Amino acid sequence: MTEPLFVIDDLHINVGEKPIVRGLSLTVNAGEVHAIMGPNGSGKSTLANALMGHPRYTITGGSVRYKGEEIVHQTPDERARAGMFLAFQYPTDVPGVSMINFLRRAVSARQGAEIPVKEFRKQLGAVLERLQIDEQFVRRYVNDGFSGGEKKRAEILQLGLLEPELAIMDETDSGLDIDALRIVAEGINATRSDANAILLITHYQRMLNYIAPDFVHVLADGRIVTSGDASLAHRLEAEGYDPILTESAAQAVQGGPS
Asked: What is the CATH number of domain 6-90+165-254?
């Protein structure tokens, strides 16, 4: 039996002294797209940042295994080199650093050796073409003066070049208009394969109109309270979170499945 790509087991996360994630478990196999949805304050972004090792978030209990290896004590760069990737909800501006230089350094770090300029340009050109991004885009400084949609496209460009086995997308749809959302979603779909997996964290169902998830999980109060297929996201869009959270709480009291 093939070992799962990514396994979270009874994970607890604090921000300072405050517990945010309170016993979350999730198994992700290669080739799968898992959407995590939930109301504001449910712990979605805390989960994303902690999984990549952000020092502000403290894992106080549980296990996180990637490719069979425990990663809780690994640094963010160790996780990234191993093939994990986080697309930020609010990407940071880096004035003075060109996209093309930033991307070449990132790819070199991912591969563990300096990539020759000619080889990198060939890789970059292929990804730009596949994602339908103009070459002038990479001549600009990283996110400096970028619109919200351009910042998210820069994240997708990194995703396409680095080819991670596990991509964690933290509310990538945040702040995007309909056209930008469609373009970003098409970029994410272009990177999907049977060899990688995507953990798509989102607040709204609209992103899932373009990216079909295999599984949808509802996060509330730091726990996954119910899971289902894509139809669960449509139900959330139609009914909101309250009816589903009430139903899940009632099932938990009765000892039934969540």
From this structure: 3.40.50.300
Work out whether strand 57-66 and strand 33-37 pair parallel, antiparallel, or are unpaired: unpaired
Residue extents of the structural domains in the chain: 6-90+165-254
Q: List per-residue pLDDT tens for the chain, 258 residues long.
A: 578 999 999 999 999 999 999 999 999 999 999 999 998 889 999 999 999 999 999 999 999 999 999 999 999 999 999 999 999 888 999 999 999 999 999 999 999 999 999 999 999 999 999 888 999 999 999 999 999 889 999 999 999 999 999 999 998 888 888 888 888 899 899 889 999 999 999 888 888 999 999 999 999 999 999 999 999 999 998 999 999 889 988 887 776 554
Q: Is 146:94 a contact under the CB 8 Å cutoff?
A: no
User: Global pTM?
Assistant: 0.92
Phi-psi map region of 114: left, alpha, beta (phi>0 left; psi -120 to 50 alpha): beta
Q: State the distance between the two ends of the chain, measured CA to CA, in whole angstroms.
A: 26
Here the tokens at position 17 are 């002294």
Q: Give the alpha-carbon dihedral of 10, 30, 190, 84, to 10 degrees.
A: 50
